[in-house]
Amino acid sequence: MQSIRKIFPRSVVITSRNFQTSSCVWKSFKVQDDQDFLEKVENSKKPVIVDFFATWCGPCRALEPRLENVVAKRSDKITLAKVDVDSLGELAAKYEVATIPALVIFKNGKVESRLVGLQDEDKLGNWLDANLEEK
Length: 135
What we know:
By secondary structure, this protein is an alpha/beta fold. It has 5 helices and 5 strands. It has helices at residues 2-7, 34-42, 58-72, 89-94, 121-132; strands spanning 28-30, 48-53, 79-84, 102-107, 110-116. The chain has a 5-stranded mixed beta sheet, sandwiched between helices. α3 crosses α5. The radius of gyration is 21 Å and the shape is globular. The protein starts with a helix and ends with a helix.
């Protein structure tokens, strides 16, 4: 500290800062390829909501924080996977995704439900809750 004062006598030197961080409890991931999708979505024991999106899509960008908020509240029941349709177009075609944003819930490797377009948080929450109920 003394040597710093000699070099910068009129400067204020901050020696330490305390930051509190919190870790995100829920898990989301971006699907990298078909094998990744198979392992993390189709073979998942837990239901997975797949967000088919594109980086250039305005409604997709608007949906992202809403979807993350809704999924975070249900993190013990569902996982969020993101599929960029520009990178994985064949995967999107396999699941008949023609319009984005498109949300698809997978349970036990099978498509359970779909929701297409920009949605508000209330509708997303109600849709997820309805699909997460044990039937």
